[in-house]
Structure prediction request, 211 residues.
Amino acid sequence: MKTFEGFYLKKDYASALKTLAAHQKDIDLGLWHYNMGTVLAEMNNWPMARFHFILADKSGLNTQQLNQNLLLVEEKLDITRLEKPLSTSDYLIKSSIIAADGPLVTLGFLILAVGIYLLKKKPSLKSAIIFVVAVSAPLMLDLWIDAWPRKIVTSNKVIYEGPSAVFGPIGELPQGLMIISNKRDGWEEVVYPSRFAGWIKPEDLKSLELK
Prediction:
């Protein structure tokens, strides 16, 4: 990746991006997304920079530099303010996302450790069944929350009242925002954040899924 570093130091960011795209399979996925985010941030492409920084974190790259860069990008987009919960559903969704970002898995392993200790002291079929259910619940919940269809909006989008252009526009979705949405008939219904509830066309949405 010396070529990438050379392009980056020369501020030839277009060539740096092409080099990264050509060598995606040659480096760690988290580092690849981090480098992509860094270059895109230098190009002032804040929505796509945020997209790649979030995926870098999801890939397991948890460094202070990554956190600082992500915070900087979100400040440029003024996104944190717009994603603050307003409704009960917002609070539930936001809390669930935070819980799935480590605490649920930690809880599962804690229950596992305690369960093994208790089963050794007093083994029984009933206790074993309760133990398996107790361990599985937070882990399955974590997987379910992680599968929620989260997306980054890469350009400003018109919000419609219904899933058709026949319905009138009711607002605008800002670029860089993270949304949770449901697909229907070629449209996306915005579920979170609730302040942007409505329907949007699916173009210019980047799914936060690791591939």
Summary: The chain has a mean pLDDT of 88. The chain has nine helices and seven strands. Residues 102 and 211 are 20 Å apart (CA to CA). The two ends are 21 Å apart (CA to CA).
